[in-house]
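Predict the 3D structure for this chain.
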Amino acid sequence: MKGIFKAFVLLISIQFIQSSVYSKSSSPIEIILSSDNSIYEQALYGIQSSLDTEFKISYYDIIISENSSIESYFQNLESSGVPLVIAIGPQAAKVAKDNLNKTPVIFSMISNPKSLGLNQKNFCGVGMDISISEFFLTLNQIDTRIRKVYAFYSSDEINYQAGEGNFRDIEYNLLYSAVHISEENFETGLNNLKTDADAFYMISDPIYNSSRFEFLSEFAKKNNIILMTTFPALVKAGATFAISPEYSKLGVETGNMANRVLSGKSNCSKERVLLPTQSAFYINEEYAKASGINIPDQILERAKQTKLFSAGITLLNENKLTSARTIFEAILKKDPNNTSAQTYLALTIEKITGTKTKELLKLANSLYANNQFLQAKNEYSKILQINPNNELAKFGLKETTIALSEQERLRGNAYEKSDKNFEAIKEYLSSLRTLPSNTKTQSELANLRKSESSKIESYLKQGINYYNERLYDNSIQMFENILLINPEEKSAKEYLRLSYKKKEAIEILKEKLRNKN
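Done. Predicted structure below.
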């Protein structure tokens, strides 16, 4: 099955190279996967969905089997002029970093990226470490009486990850202890915690194999200890809950970073390491109940939202776009700030509408850059009609509205300096219709109306003269100008009404005369 998936993604990558519309480089970038692990596949999907350039997919084991040496493979790759390499997983990231000196390498799906070394200027990426603070916060939400939390580690490389809790525990009214332990002392060490631990944090460490996990799972259940892990698959096997990154969202972040580097807007020295902005939450209610742990409704709802999101991703992968859209919209209705749901709703709508929203966004951004704010505003609005949750369009519309209001205000300034005060007032009013909160426009309009108000009597006299002389177009213009200065001027309102009535009567009479002839 895994071999079939490899063949499928390789075919997809070839098709993408042939049909890419948004390519910015003369040759495709290389995406290297450490293995066909399912979580890497999820990240790959996110990368594919966000990349704006051509790409080629390779697997580490295939590279090893088809090349005399890994060094020669990367030498040939760099000499070919490949613009960028994305490495998914630690194996791929390490060999790419060690063998590419000039080509930018963007890593993804890496725990503890510092262990790889981050000194190379061409090496950056997206880590997958979830802060222990999220676990501590969840413990508080489950039961405020929880006090003591333990973790075991055996490897010095895991020391940083294991020790993070020492700096975060007091903030959550907890006492955390990371215990260095050997394989031989694992069971003994656990038994020593039997009456002392309220929760156990299972970090990624070589000490854990299937038999030790089973022992830990049974131990925690028998002793009413909450078992926390970063591995969703272990929740079903026997753990209370897991918090992990949303893998496909990490892929999207990786693809976006690659786009920034390829476009020249950024580089690895600026990017460094991004951490997950959205986590996924999994819970085993049956295991929790057997452990004597009561799980509050808000925690269960959080897990439900993660399950719903996973269903949306599955539907999206199966190209069941309408159903996927419904799910992502349902998530956002309950959690409007869910960035993963926002991202995948946008992607789903993009697939439903072709590339329409992407093209509209590109056009809107171009119009904004050229100070064509009214047109840009219209394009951003069109995007939001298609996808009301598009954050880029929301931001663009907000910024464009501010810029358009300022543009209209400045036109008002120019008219005022040229003594075209009525035109100036019209622009100020337009500026306030665009953005009612524009305080500069409010002040300038008030000052201009104040300075013009002393002339209303003269303007009114002139307008009445036009009216008496049956120059109704002129009287209408004059009375409308007066109302620009003071919208509540009663005489101007009445004469304006009469002027329109007289003008209309004349038009009707002319029409009758034309018909008679």
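DSSP finds 24 helices and twelve strands in the chain.
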